[in-house]
Amino acid sequence: MTDDRYYQPKNAKDALRYIEGLFNQYAQAPLTMELVAYHQKLVKQIQEDILPTAQRDNQPLQVANANQMVQTMQSWLRIRMSGQPFAGKMRHFKFEPDNAQPKFKRKVIKGRRSGGHRSVRH
């Protein structure tokens, strides 16, 4: 029963994805001592657990991803400690600015026909 309580990643990439999701959840949060300690714990986990596992399994791509992720997370701490906002998120284990993805406009027009809820008039 206690084994189901904690997340057990299958490989290095799975663990990096999980930590990336955790990082994106708190990246915009106000900076507190607890958050800094949690952040340092995640960085240490990447350096001491995931990186050696990827090296042992001979996965050079995951080693590069882990190193890139550690650099991004350390730069996040420097930026936030200086009082600046972190304008972006981590995507595919790298920093991505907020304006990097294109925005698409969508206009939904309800018609009188049934089933035509998502129709668009051109």
Task: Summarize the topology.
Layout: H1 12-26, H2 33-56, H3 60-81, E1 88-91, E2 94-97
Antiparallel strand pairs: 1-2
Helix pairs in contact: 1-2, 1-3, 2-3
The poorly predicted ranges are: none
End-to-end separation: 57 Å
Got a strand count? 2
What is the approximate shape? extended
Instruction: Tell me the structural class.
Output: mainly alpha
Report the radius of gyration as a whole number of Å. Answer: 20 Å
Instruction: Report the β-strand fraction as a percent range.
Output: 5-15%
Order of H and E elements:
HHHEE
**Strand arrangement in the largest pleated sheet:** 1-2
Major sheet description: 2 strands, antiparallel
Count of helices?
Answer: 3
Mean of all residue-level pLDDT scores: 85
**Fraction of residues in helix:** 40-55%
The tally of domains stands at 1
Structure in words:
With 122 residues, the protein is mostly helical. It has one domain (7-97). 50% of the residues lie in helices and 7% in strands. It has three helices and two strands; from the N terminus they run αααββ. The protein has helices at 12-26, 33-56, 60-81; strands spanning 88-91, 94-97. It has a two-stranded antiparallel sheet. The radius of gyration is 20 Å and the shape is extended. The model has no long low-confidence stretch (mean pLDDT 85).
Quick structural summary:
This protein is mostly helical and 122 residues long. The protein has helices at 12-26, 33-56, 60-81; strands spanning 88-91, 94-97.
Keywords:
mainly alpha; 3 helices; 122 residues; single chain
